[in-house]
Design goal:
Layout lengths: L2 H21 L12 H20 L3 H10 L1 H24 L7 H7 L10 H6 L9 H10 L10 E9 L2 E6 L8 E8 L10 E10 L5 E10 L10
Parallel strand pairs: 3-5
Antiparallel strand pairs: 1-2, 1-4, 2-3, 4-5
Helix pairs in contact: 1-2, 1-4
């Protein structure tokens, strides 16, 4: 098979897969949702380029094809299309999985994720109602005046890791995923690593002067459709 048709087929497969993941609402399992428009735009350009690559052939291709006949082009095109179809269909049949809690624990360096609410924390924004696990993780790690946040009420969704509440934060795609973790003070018995939960409670200062979430309610929930924070 001509490398040209194989390359076109594989490129087309990735483009079609990107568009189909967007239509089915699963693209956010791979990239930051704010960049979906760019991924879709590039997928459309790749498809147009693939069509042009097959339709427009240089003169030397014509001469080459004169020797081998149109049947070889048809076979090469069919094989390329077949490879593209197998890749795209296979990726759609096998449901994409979110990054595991075990991987999150491996990536947990004990520091807050970069860019997670950094501007809000540094500027001392009073309204924390929209803070997620990543934002609060940055607050817990960098707050020079923890009393400022004591008493704040929170409702957060994440997964359990060693008695803490965690969430993966991505900047561009899952490759750069960073772990945000919040210490919990409360009854988390019966929960296992990786269980998704909704935690309600208050931000408090523990005996060591560190901020913790004093959980008043921990409810097991299904994994969110979009499991990441951005």
């Amino acid at each position: 098979m001509s490398p040209k048709y194989l390359g076109v087929g594989l490129a087309s497969a990735l483009a079609v897969l990107t568009l189909m993941l967007t239509v089915t609402g699963r693209l956010q399992l791979y990239i930051n949702t704010s960049q979906a428009w760019f991924a879709c735009g590039m997928a459309v350009l790749i498809l147009l380029g693939s069509v042009a690559a097959v339709a427009i052939r240089p003169a030397d291709d014509h001469d080459h094809d004169h020797d081998h006949g149109s049947s070889s082009r048809a076979v090469a095109g069919a094989v390329g299309a077949g490879v593209a179809t197998v890749v795209a269909v296979g990726a759609l049949i096998l449901p994409p999985a979110t990054l595991s809690a075990e991987l999150a624990m491996e990536r947990d360096t004990g520091t807050p994720p970069l860019f997670a609410g950094a501007d809000d924390v540094q500027l001392g924004v009073v309204d924390t109602s929209a803070f997620g696990v990543g934002d609060w993780s940055a607050v817990f790690a960098t707050a020079t005046n923890p009393e400022r946040y004591a008493g704040e009420t929170v409702t957060l969704t994440g997964f359990m890791t060693d008695g803490s509440l965690s969430r993966l934060v991505i900047t561009h795609c899952v490759v750069d995923a960073q772990t945000a973790t919040l210490p919990l003070d409360g009854d988390v018995s019966g929960l296992e690593t990786g269980d998704w939960v909704e935690v309600t409670g208050d931000v408090e200062i523990d005996d060591d002067g560190r901020l913790v979430v004093a959980a008043t309610g921990v409810t097991k929930v299904d994994e969110p459709r979009d499991p990441y924070e951005y």
